[in-house]
Amino acid sequence: MTVIKQDDLIQSVADALQYISYYHPVDFIQSMHEAYLREESPAAKDAIAQILINSRMCATGHRPICQDTGIVTVFVRVGMNVQWDSQMSLDDMINEGVRRAYTHPDNVLRASILADPAGKRKNTKDNTPAVIHYSIVPGDTVEIDVAAKGGGSENKSKMAMLNPSDSIVDWVLKTVPTMGAGWCPPGMLGIGIGGTAEKAALMAKEVLMESIDIHELQARGPQNRAEELRLEIFEKVNQLGIGAQGLGGLTTVLDIKIKDYPTHAASLPVCMIPNCAATRHVHFTLDGTGPAKLAAPSLDAYPEIVWEAGPSARRVDLNSITPEEVASWKPGETLLLNGKMLTGRDAAHKRMCEMLNNGEQLPVDLKGRFIYYVGPVDPVRDEVVGPAGPTTATRMDKFTRQILEATGLLGMIGKSERGPIAIEAIKDNKAVYLMAVGGAAYLVAQAIKQAKVLAFEELGMEAIYEFDVKDMPVTVAVDSLGDSVHISGPQIWHDKIVKSLAVEV
């Protein structure tokens, strides 16, 4: 009979969450490097390079891969012969581990969890509670998978109750383009098939804990229908040409994971959940001998890649920027931003629009300024700000026209594409939208030389900051004429891929 001590489980969960905040799984690093070597799209190759450089920096600096350090999901398989030496419930032990991990003074992680989600949405301050799933299994150990899932990818989860005669492949191919780039491709797609609605969703999330092995499956061939689907979906999703960060390219997914379960004769539940470029998960086992020990990956696993902006990159002075200069920028162009920018995301935009509706003066003058959609991690040691990568820009689409027209804001910076209403507002106001690479938060933070809160301090990471940046790399994603690289890029690469396949045949 194995006895698991309370402190061992708490410490193991805390250590695991710190570990995955700065270490990618080695299989993910290797797969991303293969995608980098294979990629022919310059924009996509550049984005993957930034993600890989960021990954190595985080491994050596022990700081978060992404500023969104995620909602914690835990899968616990408890052996039937296990006993507990604990005064706390298993839920409470796991949440205490989360609390310790996210408030660790040497590597503070961003608290993103809000209580009363349909009401006051008040931050719990320590990222608790986790989402916990249990199963009781034979044996005398406790096996745990810990993951930290970012909101950008989690928000792109899709669910459908298909008819039994419907094609799952067709549904996936129709659905993936609707997900945009907010899930930070390339990543993995977890697909749960069968059971009931909630079972399909649970399987889709759980299967994302598995290692990337699609190339091994390609080499040996499928042995069942689920493996046949994995190979078919992997090939056909990559043929869509969506590419890294949705910029167009050869690699949109690194792997397709599928788990299925018997279902009702009248049903075909399917759920698809993406993992992003900040894929974070780890597995450990408790056997009664103490806390889990997690070995750091060798730095040899990380490729040596040097990022260069290239000779065509423009340096931009945000302190003296003019509408005429903005109008000269072209879609897909690389810019290096210098000077002062503001920050603001969901809560700040909502607050500003409410103030404008009430005839109140905003606490910050936005005229001629650029605003960066970001919720940074708190700084530690000598940092001016913690990891500060972009958040998904489409969440600000509904505020865009009012902010542009009421304030004279000149430009926005975020992650992924903009929707039709935002693009139209950008075009009408001769503004611009710039894209920073999602999943490269620590790398981006190196460009931030000063940071101070200007307004809405009570919103925490959602407050309005002023950043002083030096050579922060961005891509012109929507120009002042309303042309979007997230529309043109994938179409160009889809056409190239289709043409190359036709030549091969």
Stated plainly, the CATH topology of the domain at 314-489 is called: fumarase
Number of helices: 15
Strand count, sense and closure of the main sheet?
5 strands, mixed, barrel
The stretches of 5 or more residues where confidence is low (pLDDT under 50) are: none
Q: Total strand count, please? A: 19
Q: What's the level 1 CATH class of the domain at 314-489?
A: Alpha Beta
Structural class: alpha/beta
Q: So, the CATH homologous superfamily of the domain at 314-489?
A: Fe-S hydro-lyase, tartrate dehydratase beta-type, catalytic domain
State the distance separating the first and last CA atoms: 61 Å
Radius of gyration: 23 Å
Biggest β-sheet: strands ordered side by side in the sheet: 14-15-16-17-19
Strand content is: 15-25%
What's the helical proportion of residues?
Answer: 25-40%
Shape: globular
Task: Identify the CATH architecture of the domain at 314-489.
Answer: Alpha-Beta Barrel
Q: Mean of residue pLDDT?
A: 96
Descriptors:
505 residues, alpha/beta, 60s Ribosomal Protein L30, Chain: A, fumarase, four-stranded mixed β-sheet, 33% helix
